[in-house]
Amino acid sequence: MPIEPVEKIWMDGELVDWADANVHILTHSLHYGLGVFEGIRAYETDRGPAIFRLDDHIDRLFASAKIFMIDIPYTHDELAEACREVVRVNDLPSCYIRPIVYLGYGEMGLNPLPCPVNVSVACWPWGTYLGDDGVKHGVRVKISSWKRHDPNILPPAAKGTGMYINSSLAKVEALKAGYDEAVMLSTHGHVSECTGENIFLVNRGTIYTPPVHAGALEGITQDSIFAIARDHDIPFEAEHILRSDLYTADEAFLSGTAAEVVPIRSVDDRELGEPGPITRLLQETYFNAVRGLDDRYKDWLDHVL
Ligand code: PMP
Predict the structure, then answer these.
(1) Could you give the CA distance from residue 129 to residue 260 in angstroms, rounded to a whole number?
(2) Which burial class, exposed, middle or buried, applies to 41 when counting CB atoms under 10 A from its CB (0-12, 13-18, 19+)?
(3) Which regions in the chain score pLDDT beneath 50?
(4) Which pLDDT value is given to residue 184?
(5) DSSP calls for 98-150
(6) Is this structure's pTM higher than 0.85?
(7) pLDDT tens by residue, 271-280
(8) Distance, CA 99 to ligand 1 centroid (Å)?
(9) What's the pLDDT tens digit per position in 63-105?
(10) Is residue 138 within 8 Å of 264, Cβ to Cβ?
(11) Atom of ligand 1 nearest to the CA of 163
């Protein structure tokens, strides 16, 4: 999906023109893949653009940085304000927001500790990540031959830039095989997550999602799904899931900031069919929540104006 340029990007405290938001070729993170980032969305509401669960995303950015011993040279509030500022200054009713903390120019070699720490926040208009048809009718997924990170190889709790090589391997494999998305298993063989989304199944009215120790990132959308399920008295459990559990599920869906809430219509060519009632209810409630149309979830919105 090509990026549609906007006017300004926040870089180390300054708003710079989109075309000038460049880095040196010896930027440390470019070579060794150590950086942390977030993916956030702002949605159009009747009070102007609102960023969804901004504080939770900034908290996770700091947690990711802590895991990798990267000292972010800004406070939580400064980075939250940088996110609001880029949405405001680019005059976007809705957009995707990408804060990134990276190790900059000036040091080389594998010890990251002496490296300068740079931060930028970009935003751009971004439609549905897995396609409008996927949101409506569901996506076709395939179990990847690539395993998810083992927590003692790369910590899944961190949203680290280089960790996404693993996701890209699985994504390309799935796309080349004609599927929309990959489902990744843990090194122990349990369902973990998709390349950039958490995964859920529904059986006899209960929602199941893999436990954290199956290696998934703890999604903020996933947490929103838990809250919505609770408010609708739908039971949910974090339990190990086998690939065959997905084949025989009543319903399955995935969740992520970019992807939002997307039904799964088949897994390894085992048809689950059109989205089921629980998936539809959660999806509809989520879309209302992010747009400020459901008072129960107003606290999740951070209005930029
Ligand atoms: N897993 C991975 C690997 C991801 O990249 C994402 C997207 N950040 C998610 C799950 C979903 O997380 P969230 O709902 O916070 O976007």
Answers:
(1) 8
(2) buried
(3) none
(4) 98
(5) EEEEEE-SS--SS--TTS-EEEEEEEE----TT-HHHHHH-EEEEE-SSPPPP
(6) yes
(7) 999 999 999 9
(8) 14
(9) 999 999 999 999 999 999 999 999 999 999 999 999 999 999 9
(10) yes
(11) 3
> Which residues does the annotation mark as catalytic?
159
Strand partners, 299: none
User: In the prediction, which pLDDT does 2 show?
Assistant: 83
How many angstroms separate the CA atoms of 19 and 223, rounded? Answer: 36
Give the chain's domains with CATH numbers: 8-124 (3.30.470.10), 132-290 (3.20.10.10)
Q: Say what the pLDDT of residue 209 is.
A: 98
Q: At 144, give phi and psi (nearest 5°).
A: -80, 150
Whether residue 222 has its Cβ less than 6 Å from ligand 1: yes
CA dist., res. 237 & res. 226, Å (int): 9
Judge contact between 114 and 181, C-beta under 8 A: no
| CA distances (Å), origin 54, targets 26, 96, 154, 223, 227 | 31, 12, 25, 14, 17
Q: Which atom of ligand 1 is nearest to the CA of 38?
A: 8
Which residue in this structure is represented by tokens 């929540």? Answer: 289
CA of 163 to the centre of ligand 1 (A): 12
